[in-house]
Amino acid sequence: MVPERFAEDADRTGHIMLQKNTEQTREGQGLTVPVWDIWVRLFHWLLLACVATATVTGFFADATWLRLHIAGGLGAAGLVLARIVWGFTGPTHARFKDFFPRPSAVMEHLRGGGGRHRGHNPLGGAMVFAFFLAILFLAATGLAILGGAFKTGPLAFAFTFQSGHAMEEVHELIALALLVMIGLHVAGVVLESFRSRENLARGMVTGEKEWRADDHQPRIARPRGLAAAAAIAAVGAVLILANTGLSARPVPGMPVANLDPTYAQECGDCHTVYHPSLLPAASWRALMPRLADHFGENASLGPELTAELEAYLVAHAAETADTKAANRMARGLDAPPLAMTETPFWKHQHEDLAKALFASDAVGSASNCAACHLDAETGLFSPLSISIPKQETIR
Amino acid sequence: MKYLLIVPALLIATPALAQSTSPSDLIQRYSAEAGRAADAGRGKSFFLANHGSGKPDTPSCTTCHTKNPRSAGKARTGKTIDPLAPSANGARLTDLAKVEKWFRRNCDSVLGRSCTAGEKADVVAWLASQ
Question: Could you tell me the residue ranges of all domains in chain A?
């Protein structure tokens, strides 16, 4: 015996109705209804994977994991955008109108009324929207940080190091809020599972839930797959175009792009050609007149060449660049440092790396920046360009 | 018209800019300056010796160039230095200004003084014989 209303539901949503003759038949006569379509389920678990990746890499991993962190964050934001489209085009319980948390519905639910919601209940619905907002804000602030601090991505043209840095705090606060929300969400699922005597998490795996006579009546909607695919493709295309256009804009505060060939030749024989933006002008002024006693070696040049190179270095010193290295490593020190490796910032950034790594064949010394920083000669020192030489090449 | 003048000017200017030389030119030049013939054996012991009179971190030429001039060396910063022997690296000992610059620097670092013309002649003779 199929209850009439259920038959109608199943028919109109285009889903196949499943009937199970289980022994533990409870009030639903063992009947299950499709609730979460495959896309909602995929979305849910992929979102979990992306958010988990971004969370772990964001809170616990060092800068070399930034690429994965960004992939997790952008993946989550992309999923949310696709889910928003599906919220207007998906089947019954995927639709926003099925779980939009109207205050009256939330109040009724809190009082224990309104019947059992097979889809999201009003509180769960509120959480869904809160998640979407948090994830989109995290992606936006993340891109601002990437642009300001690392001079990369579509927002690099718009954010200075300072403004990007300020976003870091906002980003972190939202991330903490997201963690709290995830905690509340899981607690809510556990609580509601007990309250309604069903495993809600399993429903998000199988997609099905028990039919019950007193269920809240959903407003039936048909999935419009083609419209959804078209809308998602359009959103994707707009984003790709925007990204390409914005990323191509000139970035203020970029370190000077082309190293002077004389400088590269004269100062690159013994070590990485250090980008002029890595030290303040005062450091170069102190270092150049003392080349005959240069870190325990004679690196002298003729007086004219020395003066020419000093002028070049001073003209493109840290004061002229807005990179993280120029801001954090080279500025705000009491005395001008003679080496990057002497600055507190450098020491702090590299304190977790083993001494043996620096002494290894592949690296040789801490001053061999280019062994690990593939973009050393650009002055950018982006965390996206760090590649630590493989263990087997280490003695 | 102008181009006709620029081309020969360039042809004349290029060799002067590169200050090109060769190991045998260098040996000739330094031994003439020293007033004696170059001695590859002396160059070898000079190169391999532990002088210790210069800067503490660089007691010997081999600190950076290793004992074998045909193999690559390593600066104290970890950067690889291409072999010094012209047989292993054709670009070596072909640019007078470069050779002079590195003798000036390296002799000061290792010995704490300039190298004499005789020492330069010996070292170049030894490197060229490898």
Answer: 35-247, 261-393
Using a CB-CB cut-off of 8 Å, the residues of chain A touching B75 are 269-271, 364
Sequence spans of domains, chain B: 20-129
Q: Pick the residue from chain B with its C-alpha nearest to A367.
A: B77
Q: pLDDT tens, A292-344?
A: 999 999 999 989 999 999 999 999 999 999 999 999 998 878 889 999 999 99
* CA A24 – CA A285 distance, rounded (Å): 84
pLDDT tens digits along A7-44: 444 444 444 343 333 334 444 457 899 999 999 999 99
Does the CB of A340 have a partner CB in chain B at under 8 Å? no
- B74 bridge partner residues: B80
CB contact under 8 A, B79 and A364: yes
pLDDT at A115 over 90: no
Compare all CA atoms of chain A with the CA of B77 and give the residue at the minimum distance: A365
Specify the CATH superfamily of domain B20-129. Answer: Cytochrome c-like domain (1.10.760.10)
Q: Quick check: A394 pLDDT over 50? A: no
| All residues at 6 or more sequence positions from B17 whose CB lies less than 8 Å from its CB, including other chains | none
Task: Report chain A residues whose CB lies below 8 A from the CB of B65.
Answer: none
Q: Does the beta carbon of A296 lie under 8 angstroms from any beta carbon of chain B?
A: yes
The pLDDT assigned to B83 comes to 95
Name all contacts of A387-394 with Cβ < 8 Å and 24+ positions apart. A388/A64, A388/A353, A388/A357, A389/A357, A389/A360, A389/A362, A389/A363, A390/A362, A393/A360, A393/A361, A393/A362, A394/A356, A394/A357, A394/A360, A394/A361, A394/A362
CA–CA dist A317, A330 (Å, integer): 9
3-state secondary structure A325-348: HHHHHCCCCCCCCCCHHHCHHHHH
Domain A35-247 CATH class label = mainly alpha
Give dist(CA A369, CA A341) in Å, integer. Answer: 10
The two tokens of residue A259 are 């190293």
Q: Taking 60 as the threshold, does the pLDDT of residue A395 lie above it?
A: no
Q: What is the pLDDT of residue B28?
A: 94
pTM, full prediction: 0.83
Distance from CA of B109 to the nearest CA of A (A): 5
